[in-house]
Amino acid sequence: PSPSESRTAQLRSLLDFKAAVDKQGALAWSAEKGANAGYCGFTGVTCDTQGNVTKIELSFPDELRGTLPPASVFKGLTALTVISLGSTSVTGTLPSDWGTLAQLEDIRIIFHPRITGPLPDSWAGLTRLKVLHLL
Question: d(Cα 101, Cα 130) in Å, to the nearest integer?
């Protein structure tokens, strides 16, 4: 894809992620603010020098309310290696299809008493994973 198409796909993925985990509107992420790789300035988002999202790191005690999204939400984030959610009110289970996100190296879902269920067997497909911190 062209750089413009890639940026559009990344912004769409970030906004889809926000829609899943931020039902209260705590994150000030929007299509307007995210245009032209403006998403690299979003709270909790880190990009490489080419404007590719490499990390999503959010810690908002009780402000983020929603569920962990399916892997399809991340399809536009091909350089994403870190997902870190700390002290939020996200609920549900660990998505089994995250096992298809082979580029992930670091997943931290900490201080989430509302996340339930076992570690999905499919996460064995995360062959690049170096850090898995669930608490």
Answer: 13
Cα distance between residue 11 and residue 130, in whole Å:
26
Please state which of the ranges 11-20, 60-69, 81-90 shows the lowest mean pLDDT: 60-69
* Overall number of domains in the chain: 1
What is the pTM (predicted TM-score) of this model?
0.94
Of 103, 5, 101, nearest to 51 by C-alpha is 5
Instruction: Work out the pLDDT band at 13, boundaries 50, 70, 90.
Output: very high
DSSP state letter for 119: P
Q: What is the pLDDT of residues 34-48, one digit of tens each?
A: 999 999 999 999 999
**C-alpha dist (Å) from residue 13 to 5, 61, 62, 130:** 12, 23, 23, 24
The CATH number linked to 81 is 3.80.10.10
38: containing domain:
3-134
Cβ proximity of 21 and 88 under 8 Å: yes
70 φψ region: left (φ > 0), alpha (ψ -120 to 50), beta (else) = beta
